[in-house]
Request: fold
Amino acid sequence: MPPLLYSFRRCPYAMRARMVLAAAEIELRLREIVLRDKPAHMLELSSKGTVPVLQLESGKVLDESRAVMDWALAQADPHGWLAHKDDALIDMFDGDFKHHLDRYKYATRYEGVDALEHRAACHEMLQDIEPRLANGWLAGAAAGFTDIALLPFVRQFRIADADWFDNEMALPHVQAWVMRFLDWPVFTRIMGKYELWLDSDKEHPFPPLS
Ligand SMILES: N[C@@H](CCC(=O)N[C@@H](CS)C(=O)NCC(=O)O)C(=O)O
Reply:
């Protein structure tokens, strides 16, 4: 049986995993879920209850998006993405940026939170990477592992107030980087809509055609 991926289309961690799995052309079965109704089998594989969850042919389970990316690129890395992997920067975005992003985006879910303070904290982190994006991507003219890891979250940051991001943020390289990402075939390829597995028991062959 091909590997099995539990995924949720809009989850930035699952996006990372799908982009790398698709680029490595790893054939698998995709089960699309919603977070409020997690399949029992997914929770049996990983009691953490987060997506993505990948079960390999050997039965081994990977339930961290970065572990899925590492595994997929160890199978095939056709674009040389592993050569551009900045773990320290990814840690910062998975940690601080995500912390502030959640409080900016979902301020009403947290007590005593000022959304704009958290937007400013994210903005500061993006300001730090602005000079590194002068050639288009973090490592230069081509995307790498770090871009793929960070961009789904920066995309979410944009969505929280796209008008401000596009017109007022004043970080031209970051703005162009996100726009380039939104049209990037590596990204658009994995953003198709899938019928939910729970409703239909339907698994989807993955990756989709380019
Ligand atoms: N560290 C995990 C985080 C994954 C994660 O938190 N995914 C979210 C969705 S974006 C999730 O599944 N949350 C569980 C829930 O909301 O119930 C990874 O990198 O895979």
Notes: The mean pLDDT is 96.
